[in-house]
Each structure stands twice: as C-alpha cells, then as structure tokens.
Design goal:
With 144 residues, the protein is mainly α. Helices cover 76% and strands 0% of the residues. It is built from four helices and no strands. It has helices spanning 3-31, 45-54, 68-93, 99-143.
Length: 144
Amino acid sequence: MDIRSILKKCMLDFLIIQAGITLTIGIIICIHPPSYRVTYEMFFMPFVYAFFCVIPSLILYPVKEPGVRQMLVRKVIHFVLVELIVIVISAKTGILDDTFMCVAIPLSATAIYLIVNVLTYFFYKTEADTMTKKIQHIREKEKS
C-alpha cells in the first residue's frame, strides 16, 4: 500500500472518528450533564481524541498484504490501543470523575470503533464494486 492511500485512509478514519466523538459527547452530556462548567477547551476534544486514535492505525498498513489471521490480530491490537488512548486522554483531562463516565467513555469508544470499521468497509466495498464494473465495461469494449 502506498503512502498516498494510507494517508487517504487515515484522513477518512479521522473525519469519521471526529464526527462520532462529537455526536457521542453531545449524547453523553444530554444523558449525564457534567458537574463542572463546560469550557471552550472541550470543543477541541473531538479533534484531540481523533488525532491520537488515528496514530495506531499505522499498524494496520503493512508493506505486504497480511493474511486473515494476521489482520485480525492487528485489528485486536489496534482496538486495545485505541481504548487505552481514549482512557488515558479521558483520565488526564479529568473526565473520568464518576462511575457513569468510567463506563460510558470506553463503551462509546467501542461503539465508535465499530461504526468506523463498518463505514470504512462499505466505503471500500462500494469503491471496489465501481472499479469492477469499470473493468468489466473495458473488457466488453475490447471484445467488440
């Protein structure tokens, strides 16, 4: 995989993660309003979470194509790293101040991780289907 396609994938993941985190923060605040005053710095938190959660994505892009088992192991390691990053950032910012947040933050990270992977799968499946149709169209033109 070349550097351009890796950056494209990371940017797509970043945008989906940032949108998911923004939505999740809104939902969590509606369900469980914080005991502290919301500051302007909180508006930057989706960017911070998304940035640091995209960094471990680099382990998913090897020089040669991995097998199914190796890719599954990489996905598990990636998921664990993302969860650790979310928990560390949340702990450092003081968000994990009560039991609700200690449960909601990791569950939200899991949900966003799954949504990002599903959306990415459908995006690339659509892209692959389009390329397959183009190839079939070219082959039909060559035959005639």
